[in-house]
Amino acid sequence: METSIKSNAINYGLYLGGMLSLLTVFAYSVNLDLFTKWWYGVALMVLVIIFGVISAMTSKKLLGGIINFKGAFSAYFIAIAIGIVISSVVSYVIFNVIDPDAAKLLQEKILDSQVAMMRGFGAPEDAIADVVEQIEKEENMFALSKVVQSIAFQLIGFSVVGLIVALVVKKEDPQA
Questions:
Q1: Residue 65, phi-psi category: left (phi > 0), alpha (psi -120 to 50), beta (remainder)
Q2: Distance of alpha carbon 55 from alpha carbon 71, whole angstroms
Q3: By C-alpha distance, which of 46, 45, 35, 42 is closest to 114?
Q4: How far apart are CA 76 and CA 61, in angstroms?
Q5: What are the boundaries of each domain within the chain?
Q6: Which pLDDT tens digit goes with each residue over 41-52?
Q7: What letters, b where the CB count within 10 A reaches 16 and e where it falls short, cover 152-167?
Q8: What are the CA-CA distances from residue 83 to residues 19, 40, 86, 113, 122 (Å)?
Q9: Across all residues in the chain, what is the average pLDDT?
Q10: Which among 52, 25, 81 is positioned nearest to 161, based on CA atoms?
Q11: SS3 string of the chain?
């Protein structure tokens, strides 16, 4: 992979990490309920995908409009990986170092939100009780092991999207 693709992807990853971190700090400082809203999560996912796509497209442009599948996927993946890791570190620091009580409060809010959603879908009470028991067993959803697990699952999920993006963005060199 060329240095220009790497540096381009790293830059977009840093921008993404900064943007996600700002949104996390904003949600933390304005209203913790934002973390429980479905549209907030969807907006963050769309933002990650947009930055990954932009990284792949600008890498293609840097290479004169010719980029192979590996280069396009690498540009996408590096950008989202850096952004997700930066955002996760910021969340970890906020909810474990700066304000651990906010993590407990957020866990309660998530529990309330899950119960309300399940009742809204007409879930049986025993299924709701199982979910409540499972969430209440969690000691700290922002523990280091949970954060690392979350990063891994996000990278896997976003990689599937990245494979599609790389298929769309790639353009083989007609001279080769």
A1: left
A2: 11
A3: 35
A4: 14
A5: 3-99+151-169
A6: 999 999 999 999
A7: eebeeebbebbeebbe
A8: 8, 17, 5, 27, 37
A9: 90
A10: 52
A11: CCHHHHHHHHHHHHHHHHHHHHHHHHHHHHCHHHHHCHHHHHHHHHHHHHHHHHHHHHHHHHCCCCECHHHHHHHHHHHHHHHHHHHHHHHHHHHHHHCHHHHHHHHHHHHHHHHHHHHHCCCCHHHHHHHHHHHHHCCCCCCHHHHHHHHHHHHHHHHHHHHHHHHHHCECCCCC
- Which tokens hold the place of 114? 């899950």
CA–CA distance, 123 with 105 (Å, rounded to integer): 25
What gap in Å lies between CA 119 and CA 132, rounded to an integer? 12
State the Cα–Cα distance between residues 58 and 9, nearest whole angstrom. Answer: 9
Could you tell me the end-to-end alpha-carbon distance of the chain, in angstroms, rounded to an integer?
A: 17
CA distance 111 to 124: 16
Joined together, the tokens standing for residue 126 give: 């025993």
Tokens 């891994």 sit on residue: 152
pLDDT digits over 59-74, tens only? 999 988 899 999 999 9
* Residue appearing with tokens 């690392």: 148
